[in-house]
Amino acid sequence: MHAKTDSEVTSLAASSPPRSPPRRPIYYVMSPANSHHDVDRVSLGGSSPGASPLHPHYHHPHHHRYASSPIHHSRESSTTRLSASLKYTSSSWRKLHNHTEGHHLGSAASSGCSDSDVEDDGPIPVRCYVAWFVLGFILLFTLFSLILWGASKSYKPDVFVKGVVFRSYDIHAGTDLTGVPTKMLSINSTVRIAFRNPATFFGVHVSSTPLEIYFSDLKIATGYMKEFYQSRKSGRTVAVAVGGSQVPLYGGGTGLRSRTEDGGAPAVVPLELSFTIRARAYVLGHLVRSKFYRHVRCSLSLREDRLDKPLRLAHACDYHD
């Protein structure tokens, strides 16, 4: 190895061909005024990529040749259009959502008392006091009504059948409305019912289902009690006429007989009396009402030799609600 002389260096420099200047990079700039136009390709002369004021991103020199190809140019244009479309859709959706939410909040604030009215440091609006007063009044009135209704249920009316008096009893041969011959029954009686209202703060309206007397399964007498009003802590005795006239017996009355029919001994006929007492209490007008029902079923015997004499039913009746 030996050092080259100045003449050799000069000759080598003169014989070597001149080098071509380096290629200048190519950049793409998208106009912000219209995102749907194609990008423009510009050459930045001798300026460096970092100093270019037209594009914010720096492109590596190794990618210049790939970025300048038509395929990449088409992909970048499509991507740019899609991004702009998505940004426009998202912006429109946010505007619509904010408008709808603001409309709902405005309606809620104008219609009543909102949370922001209470959380503010300023004075509470009058509409808040009105809303609270109305709500509190409804709650208190509902509670008071429930208390009254529950208290009224403990004051059940007292119903007691004191007795019955049979006025007449007769069986004779006859014909029904169609001309069929059969036995005909006529009976007349009076049922005495005691009713008492033990309530201390309300009266009751009392009514009853028809009072019915049965022989086995055959209804032979019916009576109706008039409706009445019973004031608080008071009572009364009601007399109800129960009877039947020319009741055809057909085959159901084979066991029935009377002394007037065959001239024998006085008849004893087992019967059954049933009805239901209904009482309605208007505790607080028509807003708070209570209803009471008392079902009564009595077993009794008609003695033909004891007509017009009271028959006591103290232990002959069943009472249930």
UniProtKB/TrEMBL annotation:
Coiled coil (UniProt feature): none
Subcellular location as annotated: Membrane
Protein topology in the membrane: Single-pass membrane protein
GO CC term, one of those recorded: plasma membrane
Superkingdom of the source species: Eukaryota
Keywords, alphabetical: Membrane, Transmembrane, Transmembrane helix
Biased composition (Basic residues): 56-66
GO biological process, one term: defense response to other organism
InterPro entries listed in its UniProt record: LEA_2, NDR1-like
Ranges for region Disordered: 1-74
Transmembrane segments: 129-149
Composition bias, Low complexity: 43-55
UniProt domain Late embryogenesis abundant protein LEA-2 subgroup: residue ranges: 193-298
PANTHER family: LATE EMBRYOGENESIS ABUNDANT (LEA) HYDROXYPROLINE-RICH GLYCOPROTEIN FAMILY, OS05G0199100 PROTEIN
Record's protein name: Late embryogenesis abundant protein
Originating organism: Musa troglodytarum
